[in-house]
């Protein structure tokens, strides 16, 4: 990952910059949107602690911290935003996470809570929400 | 499946990179082009790469015609792209670090 940042820097014009968009270390949440507000049903958990999202995000954070410590980049801007995935059904959300997220899954207890919330009122919708970080990194002169 | 219907991602990108109209962008980790399709209409030109050849092929097939003039898609990574030539205004690490 540090290598990727070094290579990214080498592709830049002197006045260019890197934009790094990726999930933060905060877990993703399964939520149900109801008329009165949003209810938490559970977390999207790591199936494998070594390859799951938490470990990957931690490695990416370490890589970026290393690149900054080596004076390859200066952080010009850093923000966070929430990113939601809305499924028509819980099965769709569960299958999406299973197939598109490496090493992550929604556990049965969370799915059960979400199913109960979804049946509690018409119009309720399920979503997976994760916190995303975005940073603009300016290359520093070697 | 609806992804980011609130468009928070593209708003955050617009804040981080307000003017891409003349920018030459290297996007790393384009996948099937979900994010590329959202920002490329306001970009100068884009070289979008991803190690997953199947996703790249799907992106290429489904690319809207107006984007074909400004977006080139290739299977690959930063390590396989060739010798860095310092020619990009922006390198966008799209959920790929």
Q: Which descriptors apply to this entry?
A:
heterodimer, A: 142 residues, alpha+beta, six-stranded antiparallel sheet, 4 helices, 35% helix, elongated, B: 97 residues, alpha/beta, four-stranded parallel sheet
Structural class of chain A: alpha+beta
Instruction: Give the number of DSSP strands of chain B.
Output: 5
Mean pLDDT of chain A: 91
Biggest sheet of chain A, in brief?
6 strands, antiparallel
Major sheet description of chain B: 4 strands, parallel
> Judging from the principal axes of the Cα atoms, what is the shape of chain B?
globular
Q: Termini separation of chain B (Å)?
A: 25 Å
Q: How large, in whole angstroms, is the Cα Rg of chain B?
A: 13 Å
Number of strands of chain A: 6
Averaging pLDDT over every residue of chain B, what do you get?
Answer: 95
Beta-strand percentage of chain B?
25-35%
- What pair of chains forms the biggest interface? A-B, 41 and 34 residues
Order of helix and strand elements from N to C terminus of chain B = EHEHEHHEE
- Binned, the helix content of chain B reads 25-40%
- Alpha-beta content class of chain B: alpha/beta
Residue stretches of chain A low in confidence (pLDDT < 50, at least 5 long) are none
Structural write-up:
The complex is a heterodimer of chains A (142) and B (97). With 142 residues, chain A is of the alpha+beta class. Helix content of chain A is 35%, strand content 44%. The longest helix of chain A is centred in the middle third of the chain and has 17 residues. The two termini of chain A are 20 Å apart. Chain B is α/β, with parallel strands linked by helices and 97 residues long. Chain B is built from four helices and five strands; from the N terminus they run E-H-E-H-E-H-H-E-E. Chain B has a four-stranded parallel β-sheet with strand order 4-3-2-5, covered by helices on one side. The longest helix of chain B is centred in the middle third of the chain and has 10 residues. Chain B is globular, with a radius of gyration of 13 Å. The relative contact order of chain B is 0.23. Chains A and B meet through helix 1, strand 1, helix 2, strand 4 and helix 3 of A and strand 1, helix 1 and strand 5 of B.
